[in-house]
Design goal:
Distance between the termini: 26 Å
Protein name: Helix-turn-helix transcriptional regulator
Pfam family, one: HTH_3
InterPro entries: Cro/C1-type_HTH, Lambda_DNA-bd_dom_sf
Largest sheet: 2 strands, antiparallel
CATH class: Mainly Alpha
GO molecular function: DNA binding
Number of strands: 2
CATH architecture: Orthogonal Bundle
CATH topology: 434 Repressor (Amino-terminal Domain)
Strand order of the largest sheet: 1-2
Organism: Ochrobactrum soli
Order of helices and strands: HHHHEE
Radius of gyration: 12 Å
CATH superfamily: lambda repressor-like DNA-binding domains
Length: 79
């Protein structure tokens, strides 16, 4: 799973607004905003969120004692 901080960071790397992310996920901006503030989201939606970011080139770095993070491996595909 990913954290709220990883979601915000991934969105920042891709230069996506909350509205753009919500549109890509077919969910409300309110849901994205709530998750990014630490709110709950269904496991299926978190998986979709993670897959959407990964498809755009984001890699999620696990905690592993050094702190969770994100990295952008390749340029964002043209829209």
């Amino acid at each position: 799973m990913i954290t709220a901080a990883q979601c915000r960071a991934a969105r920042g790397l891709l230069d996506w607004t909350q509205a753009e992310l919500a549109q890509r996920l077919s969910m409300s901006v309110v849901s994205v905003r709530a998750f990014e503030k630490g709110g709950e989201m269904r496991v299926s939606n978190v998986k979709l969120l993670k897959m959407t970011f990964e498809h755009a080139g984001v890699v999620f770095i696990p905690e592993n004692g050094g702190g969770a993070g994100v990295r952008l491996l390749k340029p964002r595909p043209p829209e």
